[in-house]
Amino acid sequence: MDKSSPAPNDPRQRAAFMEALSLAQRRIRTLFDARVRLEGMTLARARVLMTLDDRAGLNQRELADILGIEGPTLARILDGLEKGGWLIRQVSPSDRRVRELALTDAGRQAAARMRDIAGATRAEVLGGVSAADLEAATRVLRAVAVISSSVHTAEKTGEDGDRNE
Predict the structure, then answer these.
(1) 87 and 103 Cβ atoms separated by less than 8 Å
(2) Domain-by-domain residue ranges, the chain?
């Protein structure tokens, strides 16, 4: 068999993989959400704080794209973070119509705490998994992400390049 072609796999194997992936993702999100709630935070707010801590100067549209959530949903999260004193919206120096998002000192401290909780959760959940297994799983998941993105793009775009939305 050609090495460039993946070996065929069984539909049951694919279904079992997707079910396991979905279950693991749900359980990890539930665990992390429960832990950040002890700090008065939610999973959604924690994701925003950690992302803004990593990428200063994002605007709302850019952040929504990165997080894969809709603008109105993000607006509600940002409103809560702003009201809580973790975030400020400031006029972009390059375009006065755009508001850039910035963490306050309290927001940076909260982001650091969320990052600590995320790190501890990853260590606890993945601590018994070998480096080789993690490497293989990461490789598979990255391939699935690339293929999923390609399929999605192909479904949104016709053969002539026109959008089918």
Answers:
(1) yes
(2) 20-128, 130-165
Prediction pTM value: 0.79
Nearest Cα to Cα of residue 137 among 126, 147, 148: 126
55-80 pLDDT per residue, tens: 988 999 999 999 999 999 999 999 99
Give the pLDDT score at 164. Answer: 47
Q: Which two tokens stand for residue 66?
A: 């990165």
Topology classification of domain 20-128:
Arc Repressor Mutant, subunit A (1.10.10)
10 Å Cβ neighbour count for 114? Answer: 23
Residue 85 · residue 44 · CB < 8 Å: no
CA-wise closest residue to 28 among 113, 142, 122: 122
Q: What is the residue whose two structure tokens read 């850019």? A: 62
